[in-house]
Specification:
single chain
């Protein structure tokens, strides 16, 4: 019989506190000019992140833009083969996407890095928008503008599992001096996670119909984990 999927219920307070703990590092190392929330799971984290970043930095007018991407959700016009395999774009930043992003430090926000397909798609497509916008400028100005445009990624949870898509190596590892120079030149992004987790099924509170029941399940999950840790110790 197949192994039962292990669920872990996450509360709004859990998410709020993970973002609160992650924000000082993001503010110090990246200090974004713009937040780009990946809908739907990135909406709540981005809104909480903005509150903390406005407190941590001098950017009191920090704004959130949204993109809609779907990997697992069934949508009108999609086939069964596409679900889980192909990232579908449902909403974007509009025809002036590149203009909005150019010259800014852009923080992409999502709830979870699972297969990494969604993050890979978002970063790749946003960088394509930048390159299209750069064509509107004289060639002599493009390198300076490209260098001034940076991306970072924040996820509440990073699943420790094999990924099905890649981000640039400098995104995931400490930068050497030469890598840092390339990072500045190419606009390669930094990667931040609120928490690393094993390959669990994460139940987020915005997916719950009964939030009180959801929070009770989260309390029970934590109690079981504490009991298991006590036995092992």
């Amino acid at each position: 019989m197949a192994d039962e999927v292990q669920h872990w219920h996450v509360t709004y307070n859990d998410i709020h506190n993970l973002i609160r703990k992650a924000t000082p590092k993001i503010a110090a190392e990246f200090n974004p000019d713009l937040l780009i929330a990946i809908g739907g799971g990135g909406f709540f984290p981005a809104r909480v992140m903005r509150t903390f970043l406005r407190e941590e930095t001098s950017n009191k007018t920090l704004q959130i833009q949204a993109i809609g991407l779907s990997l697992y959700e069934p949508l009108d016009g999609t086939t069964a083969e596409q679900i889980g395999n192909e990232v579908i774009r449902t909403q974007w930043l509009g025809p002036d996407s590149g203009k909005l992003l150019l010259g800014k430090r852009n923080l992409i926000v999502d709830e979870v890095d699972d297969t990494r397909k969604t993050l890979h798609y978002a970063l790749s497509e946003l960088k394509k928008d930048i390159e299209r916008e750069l064509l509107e400028y004289p060639e002599a100005q493009r390198e300076r503008l490209r260098s001034a445009t940076q991306f970072a990624i924040f996820v509440v949870h990073n699943k420790l599992k094999p990924k099905l898509a890649e981000l640039p190596p400098e995104t995931l590892y400490a930068l050497s001096y030469s890598s840092l120079i390339n990072w500045l030149k190419e606009g390669i992004c930094s990667y931040f996670a609120g928490e690393d987790v094993t390959d669990l099924w994460l139940d987020y509170p915005w997916e719950a119909i009964n939030i009180e029941e959801h929070d009770q399940c989260a309390f029970a999950d934590k109690a079981k984990a504490y009991e298991a840790a006590s036995i092992l110790s």
